[in-house]
Amino acid sequence: MTYAEAAKHHGTTSQLSILSHPPFYAHSPPNFTMSVIEISSKEQFTSLLGSSRLVVADFHADWCGPCKAIAPAYNSLATQLSRPNAITFTKINVDHQQELAQAYGVTAMPTFIVFKNGRVNQTVKGANPAQLNQIVQKLASEASQSDDAATGEGSSSGEPWIGGTVPKGYSDITDQVDLKGLELLNRDTDTAEPRALFNLSKPSGLAAKGKAKAAGQPDWTESDTDEQLMLYVPFNAMLKVHSLQITSLPPAEADADDDETPMRPRNLHIYKNTSHVLGFDEADGIPPVQKVEIKPGDWDAKTGTATVPLRFVNFQNVTSLVMFFVDGDGDSEKLRVDRIRVIGEAGANRSMGKLEKIGDEPGE
Question: Domain Thioredoxin spans what residues (predicted)?
Fold first, then answer.
């Protein structure tokens, strides 16, 4: 039944509960389970699209019988697969959020839309739990494989790999990166999660001339719809940042498996001490602390690493960085980054808001 038909023929409504057992509620519904988020505004939904790799949206209506019939199955799927900042299940009441329904062309209920990396990936119209389950399970499996690739190499023993030299008086302080707080916009989800960029292991691309397919899943990241990437990097301690080392190992065009060979970064805008990742439009309106151009000669021929010196006086007391990869060194719409290292001095631990000496266990 379409939205228009149902709205015309239903004079009374009853609210939908996604709890496994009725009753349905005639007034405001109770809170939905922790596995499902009820969307109350367009801004809330936009924020979720930016923070969660996969978002499943159930566009429903109170007067929709099939919506009520599939609710327990949807709730069960959400309970099984939800993972913070990775897989998020939502419910959107089309009567309360008409702007969202119109934006995504929803005209019949229920409609399920699966978003991957902030963009529509799959749409299921009607109460078809088998089809919905198949699509979501497949995407969830792909997400889990990507997580394994991003974390598996970092647990190996041995000295951390670094692609450039560390100036006297400074250290590699990459271990101060808060991996759980990383955010990366416009990432191709077929490539690794942002935590892979700070993996302490040697990039697989060095052994495979950029292909890096021998180990299974990629341990690098590439941009998605264009060449830009926006990376938010929070730290566990107050830092003085001297420089960044960026490793990029795109394959030679003759060796590339894809139709479009990714580029190395060229222009980089760096911001500091923001509390969240900047949107691309937002960053355009904020002057960066420093603009950097990485020239072709800056890339080390052996390690594929370029050292980005920062104006040290401007990067004292740093709690976070935003790295805006503006463009690359060619005409491709793909940009590739394999590793990032942070060089400088680590200060006081920021855990729980209490200043702790580095090396001490944070207090409760």
Answer: 23-141
